[in-house]
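Handout, page 2. Input:
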Amino acid sequence: MATPTPAPTRTRTAFLALDLVTYIVDNFSHDPSVAERAAQALGAARTAGLPVFHVVPQGMQEQIHPLLVPLEGEPVLTKTSFSAFATTDLRELLETAGVGRIVVAGVATSGTVLSTTRWAVDIGYKVTVVADACDDPDAEVNAVLLDESVAPKSWIGLWRIADVLPGDGIPELRP
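Output:
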């Protein structure tokens, strides 16, 4: 009987820029400066040599926010659902790249960030959410999802399943 080949170790970290298109940033964040903070996190990810994936709603791939324009070679995946995984080949791309941890930034926290993070955790990824590079149209909901002190007994908080840190507190994004 042949010994099964062990699954490859997924040790790399990748950066996911979720729904960071002008229309969504302008209409579904309570703080439009989230694009600047997301751009800082994206820049740090690029400097660190992390693979970067942009995931946007179908039909919006030409509307990526000017501060977050993909560099040559950075995939832009289009989706038709809230999660970046459900209707794209993101999982396959991450596996091929040897990724085991993802760093997430995006708008809206209660939509794509929440759905993508939960899906990623369910399929075995470690997740870090860049708290200051995420936003939601509802500031209160954003706080409940990202800040344990706001609703410490809630099960909906992303901090229950992922590391939720400011960009400068994420080891992979530090110089």
